[in-house]
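Aim 2 progress update. The chain analyzed this quarter is reproduced below.
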Amino acid sequence: MVHPPGEPPVTPGEGRCGWRPLVVVQNLLVRYAVRLSIPDRPGSLSAVTAAIGRIGADIAVLEIVERYDGVAVDDIYLTADGDRRELRFALEQVPGVIVESLRAVRRFPDAGAPMRLAAELVERGRGAVPELVAGLPAAMSSSWAVALASGVQGLDVLAVSADAPELDGIAAPWLPLLGPRRLSRAEWMPPSWRDDVSSGLELAAAPLGNSAAGLLVARRDGPRFRSAELRQLADLARVAVAAEMTAPRLRTSRLPPASTGPA
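Predicted structure tokens:
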């Protein structure tokens, strides 16, 4: 079949005279977030970046999450036009590397987000706890967050972020809470949560002012909350509670001294 001059080649299908233009779809760049455990020794990170470069991916952000016992845990955010299986395979060929999590993301994180959130909480004063809950997903690369408290008549929901699941009938046997911790799959979770945990949902909790109240934060598809992140969650909770408690005093201290009149 000879196609008319100036028009693209066509193949059988829909369109003019039962034919349609041939469309070539180019690979689209995808943003990926990767958490790796790598040997904490010279050359390990260089080997990782070289492996990423060999498949044509481009690193945008690299963050050190924590170091312990000769292991470094790093978050690498990159763009790639290949399949995630190709990316995982390339990384796993590097000696000593463990891919803890690999997921597509809409945007890369802002490294300054936790510090800005803390400053906003101090400035907010009253209402700092709801603001903390609303800001945690962005500040800690999470999916949703809630604030809960154990009351006389059961569990009180203090605040919920966007995208949080239904909380009707939820229990919290992990309260009282003495410190930040990860939460494993358990019977107290609604069935949908238990299914999500089996498929990659990660949960962490931290005290909120006292052991009877706590923050619950979740990540769909991981990665698991590391010790450094648990400490950060607890620190942000402490800032929010302190801002709530000192709000009246802070507002009073900003006022000019009262005039006593002429001496």
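The radius of gyration is 25 Å. The domain at 30-104 is CATH 3.30.70.260 (Alpha-Beta Plaits). These observations will guide the mutagenesis experiments scheduled for the next reporting period.
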